[in-house]
Amino acid sequence: MKTIIKSLFFALSVSVLTSFAALAEGNPERPATAASFKSGVYTTTQGKLSIALDKQTGGTVDVRLKNSEGAIVYSKRLSKNESTCRMRLDMSELPDGAYQLEITNGVEMTKQNVTLSTKKPTMPSRLVAVN
């Protein structure tokens, strides 16, 4: 009888500890507090991508640039204490194609589509010669 009570008590204590551990872990992907943010994205005449980001302190914000296959080609995390960030990405080394800029605080996400294409040089259609 004592061994049955001990085994039941042991099983109950293991299940309670497992439950508490699962509740304590929570969802690591979702932040406890999300900082609201405003962003502006534009291109420069030099072919660079400028990103202006203003956010509240107290939460992190992630900036990611993904290629058409979903691979991350650039990533930056703004810390809880940062409130503004201005960055300029040099896109000259990236191949032509479709990219997506994602800015997220873990709850809200802003997506911007970016297309890179290189103009092909054109040859003059007429030749002027002096004899």
From TrEMBL:
<dbReference type="InterPro" id="IPR026444">
    <property type="entry name" value="Secre_tail"/>
</dbReference>
<protein>
    <recommendedName>
        <fullName>Secretion system C-terminal sorting domain-containing protein</fullName>
    </recommendedName>
</protein>
<dbReference type="Pfam" id="PF18962">
    <property type="entry name" value="Por_Secre_tail"/>
</dbReference>
<feature type="domain" description="Secretion system C-terminal sorting">
    <location>
        <begin position="46"/>
        <end position="110"/>
    </location>
</feature>
<keyword id="KW-0732">Signal</keyword>
<feature type="signal peptide">
    <location>
        <begin position="1"/>
        <end position="21"/>
    </location>
</feature>
